[in-house]
Amino acid sequence: MKTIIAACAQNLSGSRASIQTALRTLLAAPWPSQRDVRSWLQLLSVLQWVLSFLLLGEWGAAGGPGGVGGCLLTPSPAPTGPLSLLLLIYLVFTSFWPISALYLSWVILDWDTPEKGGRRLACLRRWPVWRHFRDYFPVKLVKTHDLSPSHNYIIGSHPHGILCVGAFCNFITGSTGFGEMFPGIRPFLTTLAGNFRLPLFREYLMSGGLCPVTRRAIGYLLSKNGTGNAVAIVIGGAAESLSCRPGVTTLILKNRKGFVRMALQHGAHLVPSFSFGENDLFRQVVFEEGSWMRSIQQRFQKMMGFAPCFFYGRGLTSLRSRGFLPYAKPITTVVGEPVTVPKIEDPSGETVDMYHEMYVRSLLKLFEENKTKYGMAETDELHIL
To answer: Which parts form a coiled-coil structure per UniProt (predicted)?
Structure first.
């Protein structure tokens, strides 16, 4: 009996010593610094945003056939895997089918809300995760001129890039201080109309201030929602993403005049903006004009409203690995001087061309005055196709 008790005491003592040793080892290990924690939070914030883009819908490409702000402003189908839709379909075949039935009824009743300004939620725009998202790159907003709350505006956002990070961060989240820089101005960002047909995801989009890139939706914001509205449109749209690569700035703009016509019809001033660094976030395989792969991309873009791009970024665990996360490159979005536009309900083609040319000149001026300030060389040029 004494032998058994002694053995148990020895084992207990050994276990206690092992636990103490493990605790000392744990305490002696270096704890993550505040800088490490911030880096992880920034990485996770970008990860959740990219996953929402890839798995739920398309954030960045904001246009229909012909591209955003082009001669056509029409709905276009959502391009990526609508997991929320699959979830509701799955629930139909379970005991939770009333959830799908009730939500479907709600969507039918709420069908036109995206076309009428949506439902903005200030709390989502101030979500702390967007500050970490901003700091990952980082993203910065630069104001050059005031915007009066007594007018409405169409902000042209350039370039498209792969995921429109600059446009999203500045015009949808409040992390870069748009509201403080432009008091009294409510920013909206247009995106593919098909995204608002996706259950649940449509609520997420509307709460952030996104609206469909349709004549009806944009016209509502510019004429029936009071003043102080600024509708940001990624003019180049999906077609422009095909030319996205570091060191080359090519905009699809020469024949994109639909946004100018809408500005004239509603008397909305035109404001150019340029996100320096947008094209540096990913590496893309760019196929030359006239090649069979480029032809397939362009046909797909015309049919589906978005262009299939072959790109890569950094991996989740290492900067040296390849993955789907953007590289941490600084983005500076400069908002330029408004082009004053009169209200003409039925503008002629010559009038549209004149104000389109004024907008292009204002954009080129904005680019030339700021390119060397934000990472570009004096010899870099802006190519407009």
So the answer is: none
